[in-house]
Amino acid sequence: MSSEEVRSAADAGGGAGRSGNVASSSVAPPPLSSGKQKQKATGVNRTWFIMSKAHQNDPGSVLKLLQKDPSLVDSRDYDNRTLLHMAAIYGWTDLAMFLLDHGADVNPQNRWNNTPLADAERGRKRSIIELLKSYGGLSLGHEGSHSEPIPPLLPNKRYWEIDPSEVELSSSKIIGKGSFGEILKAYWHGTCVAVKRILPSYSGDERVIREFRHEVDLLAKLRHPNIVQFLGAVTEKTPLMIITEYMEGGDLYQFLRKKGNLSPSRAIKFAIDIARGMAYLHNEPDVIVHRDLKPSNVLLVNSNAGHLKVGDFGLSKSIRVGNSNDVYRMTGETGSCRYMAPEVFLHRRYNKRVDVFSFAMILYQMLQGYTPYPLNSAYEATTLVSEGHRPSMNSQAFTPELQDLVKNCWAADMNARPSFLDILQRLEEMKNNMKKSA
Ligand SMILES: Nc1ncnc2c1ncn2[C@@H]1O[C@H](COP(=O)(O)OP(=O)(O)OP(=O)(O)O)[C@@H](O)[C@H]1O
């Protein structure tokens, strides 16, 4: 069994304390499994670790790490944000001063071409603006929708409880249906939101309530640009509701139905967004296995389709990686058949790489233009896959690199599948090579 196999949340006492972990780093880090190991981190790990502290809005720890190792001043995350960007976004003047005094580049540009000064101006961080200008800061970019600071989690466990009267449902519209409820487009304090409302007929069903609470507990811990943002929940009154940001562009399934197959560059862009969200969920030691990754659970921020997020955590499991020899064994069939890894369908032991398999199926669909085995029922399709068959890749959009990636990700041996951090690196490389050859 591999070192990445995991045991169940119930066995391990659940996956606690995921307060803003990020999976972003300039280089894919080897997994960290304990606090002590973090201290002994390698160069690659140190970059990842310091960026994760910055993303957790923890300037104190960032400063301590920098004092120990000033060579980290120009560390970057996957979005090419430096510590100076983070200081500008959050308004950490002392930290910005330390960085600049220790030779940090004053005008690095992130993925959206924003410099720290542009970010500070967007957030109206006056003292940082002055500081950056005094060091020759230039205001370039300004287009980043991804640079807003994320407020730290409040210690109060139920800070997210919403009174149903706050949710304006009279003019709401049903936008989706799930197993136990419906998804509505509604308004919360004047803001358009998505409301997952449990149907009254299930409001007394203990199993449904347990699953609902589990989803709320899990969602409340998640904060990442590629994860649909949880805003609050109604758990003390009926109907039970989960309120998340509204994703104007709808889901990827509908999008692909309209568009057919995507160009390699667009599929890579979409795949990067999905892989980013998934790398965050799979971040050890508090691993979240989504278990139901499929196109209808990937949502588009708006109709420009420039930004995707992973949603629907109804079936996700929070798992604290403990004994590396244990695996999670599923008790019932879970997830959506057509995108499901064979080990799940066959009720075998599985680990977080089930999500990598589902990711391969989504990538396949984006490039091929239709679902895997469209002429077969979902059950037949999964049976074929469990017998070792894979759908043929005969669209022009499959570049050799994308073909290899899909093949690796749907490997029958779950331990042969790459991690989402590896996937991200490969996709980023493909993207850069395409840019160079354009
Ligand atoms: N935040 C959102 N913004 C816009 N549309 C959404 C949002 N959340 C869900 N939807 C729409 O509603 C559909 C169903 O949502 P979702 O899968 O979360 O429901 P569910 O009850 O968990 O379903 P299931 O029983 O399949 O798990 C999605 O495919 C999507 O089209």
From TrEMBL:
Catalytic activity, EC: 2.7.11.1
One Pfam family this sequence matches: PK_Tyr_Ser-Thr
Cellular component aspect of the GO annotation: cytoplasm
All copies of domain Protein kinase, residue ranges: 169-430
Keyword Transferase: yes
Keyword Kinase: yes
Enzymatic class: transferase
Catalytic activity: L-threonyl-[protein] + ATP = O-phospho-L-threonyl-[protein] + ADP + H(+); L-seryl-[protein] + ATP = O-phospho-L-seryl-[protein] + ADP + H(+)
Organism ancestry: Eukaryota, Viridiplantae, Streptophyta, Embryophyta, Tracheophyta
Binding site for ATP: 196
Species for this entry: Canna indica
Protein name: non-specific serine/threonine protein kinase
ANK repeats: from-to residues: 79-111
GO terms of molecular function: ATP binding; protein serine/threonine kinase activity
Ranges where the record places region Disordered: 1-40
PANTHER family, alphabetized: SERINE/THREONINE-PROTEIN KINASE TNNI3K-RELATED, SERINE_THREONINE-PROTEIN KINASE VIK
PROSITE patterns reported in the protein's UniProt record: ANK_REP_REGION (PS50297), ANK_REPEAT (PS50088), PROTEIN_KINASE_ATP (PS00107), PROTEIN_KINASE_DOM (PS50011), PROTEIN_KINASE_ST (PS00108)
Family named by the database record: Belongs to the protein kinase superfamily. TKL Ser/Thr protein kinase family.
The entry's keywords: ANK repeat, ATP-binding, Kinase, Nucleotide-binding, Repeat, Serine/threonine-protein kinase, Transferase
